[in-house]
Design goal:
Two copies of one chain form a homodimer. The first copy, chain A, is mostly helical and about 290 residues long. The first copy, chain A, has one domain: Orthogonal Bundle (Farnesyl Diphosphate Synthase), CATH 1.10.600.10. Chain A is built from 14 helices and two strands, in the order ααααββαααααααααα. In chain A, strands 1-2 form a two-stranded antiparallel sheet. In chain A, α7 packs antiparallel against α9 and α13 runs antiparallel to α14. Chain A is globular, with a radius of gyration of 18 Å. The two termini of chain A are about 15 Å apart. At the A-B interface, α2, α6, α7 and α8 of A face α2, α6, α7 and α8 of B.
Chain lengths: ~290, ~290
């Protein structure tokens, strides 16, 4: 991985953390709830979704500060989903990225409410963003709600839980990922390009790019669960195999999964070239997603 | 209570249930999630918030269909909050209005996700409402998110939980209720009047009205926990006294609580008169709130 993209990622990370830090008003939120929201917002996230949003916007426009708050709202939704996913009734995880999960650090009711609060706040942040027109706000809110609600991420989470007790075929597995992680990744790409005023043709190519990017993200996740470094990942590996969970390697074998990833990378590259973004950071991020080690 | 207002409430209830029934697309949501969302949406809610929104709009404008979807979004947020409040980690209730709570009918993870889905969907519904301008949508989303998020309902829920283990004074108790139930009731009033294009002066009187209406709602809730009919309420009474929970009667005595309610009713009536809505259904609803038996 080139030094170039790593610098871009690091800069994006700092930017989004600065924006997030200034968005939530300590004085108007009960202390315990505020602490719990902030704890998870700053629990070491990779900030990939905001960085994708920045890169998508910057492939077509300057002045990336226009998308800062939208990116923050997106990261808050991602964070809420992790808090709820970790709950005892869901994945029942005590640690995430080497830190206590929200309900272990605080308690279960606080974690549920901190998730609810982050989700709700994200829409308020977009609706209050003074840099956007009303038309832009409405487009973003509609897209983000659709991507994260019952027809998107939450729907994918239900299917994922159901999939743990049945075996899925490749098509069903792709549906789960398309909803659970794909739709928010797609939102990042679409929101950036929309705010940069791209035309419909480019948008259609970007939608295709985003689809494959989401799948690459997931197949790499599955591969890392087999041959990743637990130190770098901040979590144990091999849990998917033990659980006989439907994953790419369990369905296609490890080599098959890697080949599938290459097919996705090829298709994503093609779409990005057609979207005239072949020289953008999006292209570097595509390879970063495919090769990431954590 | 006059027959008049009861008819209005019954008609509003039918309207909102019809609207809700057509808003959620069965085909694009995983079956179990869809069933769980619909179960709680149609679990016998009184629909008071949508009815207040209708009445607020109709105090100043005709053609109430303009606010139908906003009212549905509001009811979905209220429903999500009940699902999450009932969870084992929160109030741990098995029954609500004589029916199994969501996590008892389905399971805990489904209940958490159904709540998340309803919350998220509510913002999508407003953003997609073809009857509203973008400016109106943004105003509604910003207000609704603020009313239901960490500076509103979710914040109130945290304070309410914390209040169970400490004793609150009257001012602290009012703060809890203002956030936990008051802000959504206020949203109902404000949203209706805003969509009816009322001027700022009227809006200010309505905000005061809404504040007292919320408090009346709560003090009556506390009174019903002492002298209500468990049959009509669909839940046992006396639990607040047993729990030594901070309530109006526990703080002021039963008679004191009733006197406090009368003071609130007087103030609400005054504000409503100044808002030139003294001949509206809002006035009837004010008394209905104060005298309701369930």
């Amino acid at each position: 991985m080139s030094n170039h993209i790593e610098q871009y990622i690091e800069k994006g990370k700092q930017t989004i953390e600065h924006v997030l830090n200034n968005l939530i008003n300590r004085d108007s939120i009960p202390k315990n709830l505020y602490d719990s929201m902030i704890y998870s917002l700053f629990a070491g996230g990779k900030r990939l979704r905001p960085i994708l949003l920045f890169a998508s916007y910057e492939a077509y426009e300057m002045n990336v500060s226009k998308v800062h708050k939208t990116a923050a709202a997106l990261e808050m939704i991602h964070t809420y989903s992790l808090i709820h996913d970790d709950l005892p009734a869901m994945d029942d995880d005590d640690f995430r990225r080497g830190k206590l999960t929200n309900h272990k650090k605080f308690d279960e009711s606080t974690a549920i409410l901190a998730g609810d609060a982050l989700l709700t706040k994200s829409f308020e942040i977009i609706a209050s963003d003074e840099q956007l027109t009303n038309k832009e706000k409405v487009f973003l809110i509609q897209s983000l709600a659709n991507a994260s609600g019952p027809e998107g991420m939450v729907g994918g989470q239900i299917l994922d839980i159901e999939g743990e007790s049945t075996s899925l075929n490749l098509k069903q597995l792709e549906t789960v990922h398309k909803l659970k992680t794909g739709k928010l990744i797609k939102f990042a790409i679409i929101a950036g390009a929309y705010l940069a005023n791209t035309d419909e043709e480019i948008m259609n190519h970007l939608k295709k790019f985003a689809k494959y990017l989401g799948l690459i993200f997931q197949v790499q996740d599955d591969i890392l669960d087999i041959e990743g470094d637990p130190e770098k990942l901040g979590k144990p590996v091999g849990s998917d195999v033990d659980n006989q969970k439907s994953t790419y390697p369990n369905l296609l074998g490890l080599d098959g999964a890697k080949k599938q990833k290459e097919i996705y990378i090829e298709k994503a590259t093609e779409a990005l070239t057609l979207a005239k973004a072949n020289n953008s950071y999006l292209m570097d991020l595509l390879h970063y997603f495919g090769e990431r080690e954590y």
